[in-house]
Amino acid sequence: MPRVLRIGGAQMGPIQKAESRQAVVRRMLDLLARAKTEKCDLVVYPELALTTFFPRWYMTDAAEVDAWFEREMPNAATRPLFEEAAASRIAISFGYAELTPDGHHFNTAILVDRDGRIVGKYRKVHLPGHAEYDPARAFQHLEKRYFEPGDLGFPVWRALGGIVGMCICNDRRWPETYRVMGLQGVELIVLGYNTPSTNSQKSEEGPAKRHFHNRLTLQAGAYQNSTFVVAVAKGGAEDGHPMIAGSLIVNPDGEIVAEAKTEDDELIVADCDLDATKFGKETIFDFARHRRVEHYGRITSQAGVIPPPE
Questions:
Q1: Would residue 47 show up in a list of annotated catalytic residues for this protein?
Q2: If you average pLDDT over residues 61-70, what whole number do you get?
Q3: Which of 59, 128, 232, 304 has its CA 20 to 30 A from that of 268?
């Protein structure tokens, strides 16, 4: 029997700094209602879906920083989302800033099953940006200041009748992200992102180039690991800081099968037959037959570049 999931990518428009968690969750519930009308099995929301992208601001007060983080999940603000998703029998995935009981800060995403239970958690591994205020930048990108690198690796889960993995934003640019999950048989990767419309260190790199790189990385990762990839953005201008939208769903052949048309709250939908991943996994990307791990040691033994001798 085909294993078809009807997946909704719940793109969100900008979340302003003053907007409350409760107001944001109401928007998420509106998108969930659209997904219910579309008979979706899974709805994917963006990175840091509950707040503005706060790492653009330099903060020194620990209490001010911690106010952007969630200490438990679900909590009072998000419980209505969990309850409505469970009542509608729709699985969800979304990102948020996580503060652990022992004081660690992570950029986190969760996978919630149709019963409203958290069945998977991922913490962002590849943190972009910088840790201290940089006056040379057009705007700040302080993820390295506010988050620790994820400590869970790239796990996958048996969920929704398939094998599902997660990553977040900058992770999508790294081929290792997809390959580690591909080596676990991943059939569906879901991720959220908040990507500025311009490069803070290269202003001529505007939205067109940003969208090109977004599609390039997602399509390559899907094709080279024969998996569906669902990538969902937060777009528009948050307190004057514009972000690309461009949410999309990519099939295992690397083809875009759904893509957002706006920078606002928008639902994109595609039917994803997880059995469509089998052909690539059994032919050109049959890892067991074709990989040559004896030549790949440099990938895990070395971080920076070591050029050949002159």
A1: yes
A2: 98
A3: 128
Q: Which burial class, exposed, middle or buried, applies to 6 when counting CB atoms under 10 A from its CB (0-12, 13-18, 19+)? A: middle
List, for residues 105-129, the tens digit of each pLDDT value.
999 999 999 999 999 999 999 999 9
- Span 175-198, average pLDDT: 98
| In the chain, alpha helices (H) | 21-37, 62-66, 79-88, 143-146, 175-182, 207-225, 278-282, 287-290, 297-301
Query: What is the distance in angstroms between the CA of the first residue and the CA of the last residue of the chain?
Result: 59
The one catalytic residue in 47, 143, 238, 266 is 47
Given 84, 124, 238, 272, the catalytic residue: 124
Q: Is the pLDDT of residue 1 over 90?
A: no
Cα dihedral sign, 192-194-200-206:
positive
Q: What pLDDT score was predicted for residue 203? A: 86
Please, which residues bridge with residue 11 across strands?
266
Decide if 193 contacts 169 (C-beta within 8 A): yes
